[in-house]
Amino acid sequence: MELPQINVAVEELMFSLFQRPLHPELFQIYASRQLSTDNYETVIWVTGCTHVVSVFAGDVCLSEVVSTPGQLLPSRGLIERFQFRGPRTHKCTLSRGVSYMTDFQVEKMSPSLYRQSHIDLERFARNRGVFVKFPELEIGKLQPFCYVDFEARKTELHIHTFAAYPDQVTMIKTQSLFDFQ
User: Fold this and answer.
1) Cβ distance 91 to 71 under 8 Å?
2) Any domain includes 111
3) Is the model's pTM score more than 0.90?
4) What sign does the dihedral 78-84-85-86 (CA atoms) show?
5) 107-112 contacts: CB < 8 A, separation 24 or more?
6) What value does the mean pLDDT take over residues 64-86?
7) For residue 78, what are the domain limits?
8) pLDDT of 4 strictly over 80
């Protein structure tokens, strides 16, 4: 399996929200997880220090994507796209009682805080979520990693992601809520 692209400026990463599923052939998938409730199904892919979360509720699909520059993504079904330049909150309500909200922050860290965050998140991930690290891409004893945590409730899906970029000693943290009322 090829190594992910991590030597990108964090502010060049793209956040996209689609009202459609995305094809797995578009991505290098390092880990995946599927969830199912009575009201929705979810597919989570860790695609390097990036991710794809697709949620299906009836005939509605929302896909949240964090991607590197140059990642080929369709334009059909695109609701929103922006770069990671400072904190941001985005909300949208779709027809059929589906709403979505996300907010994220870009956190520059000291090397010791980066290391401790890695240790803490990896320990937490032993009991829940999807954690993928890339030790072969270590820079200055700091490893890149991606952690996707989730909480599936009856009519809501909460997603928390942490993507760590050691060359910039930076972590992108996202929180998303998919709501199916």
Assistant:
1) no
2) yes
3) yes
4) positive
5) 107/170, 107/171, 107/172, 107/173, 108/168, 108/169, 108/170, 109/169, 109/170, 109/171, 110/169, 111/140, 111/141, 111/142, 111/169
6) 90
7) 10-180
8) no
Q: How many domains does the chain have?
A: 1
Closest CA to 53 of 38, 41, 39, 65: 65
pLDDT (tens digit per residue) in 96-139: 778 999 999 999 999 999 999 999 999 999 999 999 999 999 99
Q: Is the pLDDT of residue 3 over 70?
A: no
Q: Do residues 32 and 45 make contact, with C-beta atoms less than 8 angstroms apart?
A: yes
148 neighbors 129 (Cβ within 8 angstroms): yes
Q: Is residue 2 part of a domain?
A: no
| Residue 79: burial class (beta carbons within 10 Å; 0-12, 13-18, 19+) | middle
pLDDT of the residue at 106: 93
Q: Position 61: which residue type?
A: C
Residue 118, SS3 per DSSP: helix
**Tokens at residue 171, please?**
């972590």
- Residue that has been written with the tokens 């990693």 in this structure: 145
**Mean pLDDT, the chain, whole residue set:** 91
